[in-house]
Amino acid sequence: MSRIGVFTCHCGENIGATVDCAKVAEMCKDIPGVAYSVDYKYMCSDPGQRMMQEAIKEHKLDGVVVAACSPRMHEPTFRRAVANAGVNPYMCEMANLREHCSWVHEKGEATTHKAADLIRVLVEKIKHNEPLFPIKVPVTRTAMVIGGGVGGIQVALDIANGGHKVVLVEKSPSIGGHMSQLSETFPTLDCSQCILTPRMVEAAQHPNITLMTYSEVEKVDGFIGNFKVTVRKKARKLDEKLCTGCGLCIQKCPNKKISDEFNEGLGTRTAIYVPFPQAVPNKPVIDTLNCTFYKTGKCKVCEKLCPTGAIRFEQEDELVTLDIGAIVLATGFKLMKTDVFPEYGYGKSKDIIDGMQFERLASASGPTSGVMKRPSDGKEPETVVFIACSGSRDRSKGVPYCSKICCMYTAKHAMLYKHKVHSGKAYVFYMDIRAAGKDYDEFVRRAIEEDDVKYIRGRVSKIYEEDGKLVVMGADTLMGGEPVEIRADMVVLATAVQSNEGSEELAQTLHVSYDTYGFFAEAHPKLRPVETNTAGIFLAGACQAPRDIPETVAQASGAAAKVVGLFSNDELTREPIVAVVNRLPAPAYSHCVGCFLCLSACPYQAIEQEEIKSRSGEVIKTLARINPGLCQGCGTCVATCRTKAIDLQGFSNEQIYAELMTL
Amino acid sequence: MRIGYYPGCSLLGSSREFDESTRAVLKALGVELEQVPDWNCCGASSAHILNHELSLALPARILALAEQAGLTEILAPCAACSNRLLSAQQELEKHPELKAAIEKAIEMPYQGTVKIVNILEVLDRLKDRIAEKVKAPFTKHVASYYGCLLVRPPRVVNFDRPEDPQSMDLLLKAVGATPVEWPFKTECCGAAFSVTRTDIVAKLSGKLVKDAVNRGADAIVVACPMCHSNLDLRRAEINDYLQKEYAIPAMFITQVIGLALGLDPRDLGLHRHMVPVEFTETAGVQS
Amino acid sequence: MAEPFEPKITAFVCNWCTYAGADLTGTSRIKYQSNVRVLRVPCTGRIDYMMVLKALHKGADGIIVSGCHPNDCHYTSGNYHARRRWMVFKKMMEVMGVDMRRITFSWVSAAEGARWAQLVNEVTDQVRALGPYSEFRQIVGAGIE
User: Fold this and answer.
1) Which end of chain B has fewer CB atoms at under 10 Å, N or C?
2) Exposure of C135 by Cβ count < 10 A (0-12 exposed, 13-18 middle, 19+ buried)?
């Protein structure tokens, strides 16, 4: 027979005012199995807890029902108190007398009776509770950072400096990301490359960081502390150890007219190339789609010229499997293209460009060496129109959200243009100026007041070409909707920030959730912004939502702190609320018949197939097995199981039916 | 094929040629038109600004009459008419209490079951038949001009691409014409200012005429009586404003198709235009 | 004169949305009728609808099953499983002649304190009007136990 103690709390007046607690305590004494029942003013107070612990010892209680507030509030408190008195913490349950009874019902007999009922239900449950013990899982102290932009570099450096190993995976041939493409950065106008390149080099040379560029994550198995990640190392067609990065192959490659991704199509590159001069690692890649040898079987100029013989035309992709303890996603964003705007002629005009293309035009390392030339004819544009919110906050484009960075970079673009073309005219069409950030609004004011950028509040309805000019038709809503027509030489669309190519697939590979727009979902929008709902996977930067550089870096350091915190433990402790497949003596082994309906129901891929073998190694039966490291304890498999072979610890069938029997 | 027909006021007045050419072309294509009996004005241009209920009651009466006549679909060639009919129908569907009030006002039951189509939708269905029957391909460069009301607001008309419509271009291609790439497919012509502020019409329509000629069009093709009035009837004001004699004709899509089908220009009402429909080597400009 | 009938309502709720929502009803001091007894499970996906039948058998006159809104499940997809099972369960119960006005399936999020009170009141009123569900207990009571 169980010896259960019931402790009814008044919570001051909160419960006591509507529930007759003394009477409840009296009533509970009559429940079979209850050995002790008492009421007290504040059960969670220090004297309250002490009283409970003394009662446990004095009356040799083996289970405790605390009838007080919501278990979501004080369950940990009371479980700890019970544990300190030598009883397994999972033998303590809470009846929610406050949120579910005293606060929501009027004072009276019915309310007092309901309170007693709530306790009775849990007394019956506890009779079927089993002592549970926290699950311990080991931790592999190596982190993987996916995405080698400024966010990923920051995460990697912070974790590496914290003394842990990091693998930095980047899908393009060099780390650096979008930031390496920028000319200057707001609001300081310091050169982007100048502040980023040292970080890139530091990451490459850090003893704790392994760079895996031109690589993509293919498969993720396992769970927090114990991931197994398979990475595809795409073939560079080059022996990286032999290559010295001399660049001779690039100089001599006959195929020079390939549209250059790094310069956003405004320049050209060769078939064997490094994306940009400061690339890390500074080792070329052969673009097999454009290489003459792969198209015609002839050429091999690079192979003939390479002084170290590093070219490997026959090299294949390589799959590498790594043991990883935590993963940080820092995969960044992509910009909406200019070809989705019918009102702007689908961006067919070469002189209608997006923000990133403008960065390349303004960059000293860009295709024009930083001289302002418009793409169509190379002339210096005398009038430039910048259109903010191109696609952003526009439901018809499927982007109802604000892209956040455009107000600032548009002001920066207009300023950079004015600094380069003093006599030029710069116009900005905008909806609102959202310049919230340190020194941000001041920066926009500077563009307007010092650099004489004309800000027009209104939308552009149409752009068309006429006599070599782009006619921009818009409205000035601050002038009563007056139509405005500007004959421009170049138009820069601040197009929307969107989730990066392939982010949904990646999210599915990693089992993290993502929103309608493909941005990865944080575990809690306010209180857990760098964690995902999947334990051990964290987020940094614009893969979660549009972000600028300072925010990305801050979030990256936040994610790194989470990883370092995780790695400070030898073992992880998890709640033992997990599902278990029952085990029976041979020849049944389990009630499980191996139908594996549970396998498809489990949201966490926590269920695996386990083979029971005879001594001779013959498979006798295949059973489901639940990995306690992966199981989150939702119980979906329990309800799915046809043979009731699976049960959920803490919410077992026995417990729940026992509760139901008291009704 | 038989279809209900709501010509609307313009097609009986300033744009008789649109009515004539629509009837002629559809007859040639084997479509029978059944006019909505005792129809009234749809209230376009003014009713929806002055009196909301009236702007619903007028189209509702037309649709109720069509229902009574057993029509399931009506063609309203005028872009403004089809727009008003669609707006009213959609609003009455959303607000049953308004529908009840309107039924009382028009003293007729109204169900809202009649489908409203514009001329391009009907011609689009007949595109294959048109292509088959072409006798004299219209081998001109044309600027297809849709105007505001045919494709907008997209939520109401739900027809073609609101920013860059294609249906008329495809029809014109089917009869041998070459549509020019031009940016003003859906720009405003000045619409009802045709009467009150011809200076604004001259400016707005002037832009269209000038650009169409600059891009090498031989004709501007329209599907809206108001657009046609502004481009044709107000050409004198336009030319005064532009200080140039633009002679590029403005034609209804039905007239172009009629010519291609080999119909008599007189049956298509071509003689009614202010700007004569003549094609000279000077690509529309006579100075 | 007999006492007026007060129905017994059993609510199966998930820990993360509806239980938290009901907690919010409490913190917001929104009053509702006291007939409901809440059973906490981690997720609606944990609910085996046999439990619902057992509750009716053991004296419940009405049932509420409530969890996170679609897409909001703490466990990503448990509520979808619950919904799928519910669709089948509902059809089967209808065929068997169980009065489905007795069983309410709903979503209440952790932010919908007022919604929870409204749901409980609606269900309580409806079941009170229907009277005790002795019909079910008579059928079932004969065989099992």
Assistant:
1) C
2) middle
Q: b/e for B79-93, b at 16 or more Cβ within 10 A?
A: bbbbbbbbbbbebbe
Q: How far is CA A163 from the centre of its chain?
A: 23
CATH code assigned at C72: 3.40.50
In a domain? residue C143: no
| Number of domains, chain C | 1
The predicted structure's pLDDT at residue A389: 95
Residues of C in contact with A603 (CB under 8 A): 75-78
Task: Answer whether A663 sits within 8 Å of C37, measured CB to CB.
Answer: yes
Give residue A574's pLDDT: 82
C-beta of residue C53 within 8 angstroms of C-beta of residue C133? no
CA-to-CA dists, residue B146 to A340, A408, A471, B155, angstroms: 21, 38, 20, 17
- Look at residue C142 and tell me if it is in a domain: no
B214/A345 Cβ within 8 A: no
**Any chain B CB within 8 A of the CB of A117?**
no
Closest CA to B115 of B166, B168, B67: B67
How far apart are alpha carbons A402 and A390 in whole angstroms? 10
Domain of residue C119, residue span = 9-137
Tell me, yes or no, whether C89 lies in a domain. yes
Instruction: Return the number of CB contacts < 8 Å for A and B.
Output: 16
Q: Is A342 close to B161, i.e. CB distance below 8 A?
A: yes
Chain B CB contacts of A462 below 8 Å: 183, 187
Average pLDDT, integer, range A551-566: 97
pLDDT at B45 > cutoff 90: no
Whether residue A464 and residue B184 make contact (CB cut-off 8 A), yes or no, is: yes
Judged against a pLDDT cut of 90, whether residue B279 lies above it is answered with no
The model's confidence at residue B281, banded by pLDDT at 50, 70 and 90, is low
- Nearest of B79, B92, B68, B95 to residue B42 by alpha carbon: B79
| Residue C145 in domain | no
A520 Cα to chain B: minimum distance (Å) = 32
pTM, two decimals, is 0.77
Tell me the percentage of chain A whose pLDDT exceeds 90: 87
Q: Which of B142, B140, B183 is nearest to B165 (CA)?
A: B183
Chains A and C are in contact, defined as 3 or more C-beta pairs closer than 8 angstroms: yes
Q: Is A75 on the interface with C (CB under 8 A)?
A: no
> Is-contact A639 A235, C-beta < 8 A?
no
- State yes or no: pLDDT of C144 exceeds 70: no
Per-residue pLDDT for A543 more than 60? yes
Is pLDDT above 80 for B285? no
Chain C residue numbers touching A657 (CB-CB < 8 A): 51, 54
Asked whether residue B125 carries a pLDDT value surpassing 80, the answer given is yes
Of the pLDDT bands very low, low, confident and very high (cuts 50, 70, 90), residue B233 is very high
The interface predicted TM-score (ipTM) is: 0.93
Task: Return the residue in A396, A464, A467, A482 with the most chain B beta carbons within 10 A, the one to mutate for interface testing.
Answer: A464
Q: Distance, in angstroms, between C49 CA and closest chain A CA? A: 8
Helix (H) or strand (E) holding A390: strand A383-390
Task: Tell me the angle at which helices C113-130 and C18-27 cross, rounded to the nearest 10 degrees.
Answer: 100
CA C137/CA C135 separation, integer angstroms: 6
CA torsion sign for B277, B279, B283, B286 is negative
